[in-house]
Amino acid sequence: MKEVYREYQKTDYQQCEALVNQAWSFDETFKPKALSKLANLLYTEGSEVGSNYKRVVEAEGKVVGFIFGFNTNYKKPKKDIFFSLLILFKLLFVKSTSPDKKSLLDAISTHEKNRSQIVNNDKSEIVLFVVDEKYQGKGYGKNLWMGFREFCHNSNVTSVVVETNSFGASAFYEKIGFHHLKDFDSPLHEFVTKGGQACIYEFRCD
Predict the structure, then answer these.
(1) What are residue 165's DSSP bridge partners?
(2) Paired strand residues for 55
(3) pLDDT tens for residues 133-150?
(4) Distance from C-alpha of 64 to C-alpha of 55, rounded to nearest angstrom
(5) Checking CA distances to 15, which of 3, 41, 47, 109 falls within 20 to 30 Å?
(6) Does 37 score more than 90 pLDDT?
């Protein structure tokens, strides 16, 4: 069956969340199960609500990859106060063992502080980008990126950034034309990618 590229729909969320869990092993990193689900929700849905470009690729009747992006020259996504309140509520009541809630919150805070010294919130960005490991190497990721690249180019965006890890997708981004911008320290990355280096890559559209 030929792959299909289409707009993301809310009904795709669970499949996208499962792909994120496959890529970053939340179930293995965060204990107990309630904390891993919360971390995945924070990362996946948090990225979804903060994006104004969302596409998926289907193969064999299921979503096997997706890209969430933010284009600064397009209409801004609506702030979802209910999502923020939901995360806060769940954080208050979830019990955690590895890591504890304070460590997780501190890691998020340190991550954002260090990252903001390189890029700020007014940059167009690949917010979240995952392709099922079983379907990598087939051009699905490149095609998803090309769609977002065209979307940015058509609205006169000059550059697109992406956050990745030296042990993660950095080689893929270099292959499609991104250039290493700068490294930064992130205890959040250290949770899921032991020994890897958090970094920012940039693609120049002009």
Answers:
(1) 198
(2) 7, 67
(3) 999 999 999 999 999 999
(4) 11
(5) 109
(6) no
Helix axes 101-116, 33-49, angle to 10 degrees: 30
DSSP 31: B
How many Å apart are CA 90 and CA 174, to the nearest integer? 38
From CA 86, how far away is CA 169, in angstroms rounded?
30
Per-residue pLDDT at 192:
86
What the block records as the tokens of 171 is: 């080689």
Which residues face 129 on adjacent strands? Answer: 67
Alpha carbon separation from 41 to 14, 20, 37, 46 (Å, rounded): 10, 10, 6, 7
CA 143, CA 115: separation in Å to the nearest integer? Answer: 27
- In the predicted structure, residue 84 carries a pLDDT above the cut 80: no
HEC string of 92-150 equals: HHCCCCECCHHHHHHHHHHHHHHHHCCCCCCCEEEEEEEECHHHCCCCHHHHHHHHHHH
What are the structure tokens assigned to 146, written together?
Answer: 């090309």
Cβ within 8 Å of residue 10, ≥6 positions away: none
Q: Are 58 and 4 in contact (CB under 8 A)?
A: yes
Q: Which residues contact 60 (CB under 8 A, 6 or more apart)?
A: 1
